[in-house]
Amino acid sequence: xxxxxxxxAAVRVLPAAVxxxxxxxxxxYSAQAERATVIPAPAIDASAGxxxxxxxxxxxxCFWGVQAVFQHVRGVTGAVSGYxxxxxxxxxxxxxxxxxxxxxxxxxxxxxxxxxSYGQLLQVFFSVAHxxxxxxxxGPDVGPQYRSAIFPASADQERIATAYIAQLTGARAFxxxxxxxxxxxxxxxxxxxxxxxxxxxxxRNPYIVINDLPKLAELQRVFPERYRGEPVLVGGTR
Length: 238
Prior knowledge:
Elements: H1 4-13, H2 16-33, E1 54-60, H3 63-71, E2 76-84, H4 93-96, E3 104-111, H5 118-129, E4 137-138, E5 141-142, E6 148-151, H6 155-170, E7 181-182, E8 188-190, H7 198-201, H8 206-222
Parallel strand pairs: 6-7
Antiparallel strand pairs: 1-3, 1-6, 2-3, 2-8, 4-5
Helix pairs in contact: 2-8, 3-5, 3-8
């Protein structure tokens, strides 16, 4: 398990020259590893309905980066880091880090369906926010709490997500099998305040620089029409 404490500790204990060399090499690797996969839009999608705000929950590794990606998507009105897949009593960062609570680090996305559809959010999720072919891990973070998962808020969302995975699989959009799980009827629990808006508040954190800032650059490159320069922030406390 890679905690926020572990993520920063490795950099603090190394000499500055070594850190710079490691970061330079890792940044080059990250620029390639975090490069988006260009994929087709969903063939099946939801309508705008009556325009009321809707909610979607996605898990794709460390929630810092996933939250940041969705905070920069037009039509998203809120993106909150949290935990999904387990029970309320163990929905705490230090506890889920043991990997045995059933939770995944997840992000609850509130969006205006008149501006961005659920299917378009799925496209961003699979293309930019994470690598859906990694099983029980994402980049440097290993464990079931970093799994790729979708927690549908309705039967319609489940239908669209299932169809999209089948579409991407049939199109061989990825070089490996999609590992994303669809987990029904699992509640979402908001994460601790210090995890919210983490990228915005810690843009120079080496973990953020290496793993997450490249995702924002890819979002702007691949989906320029959906990219918003000013992120929508949580700003509050737990």
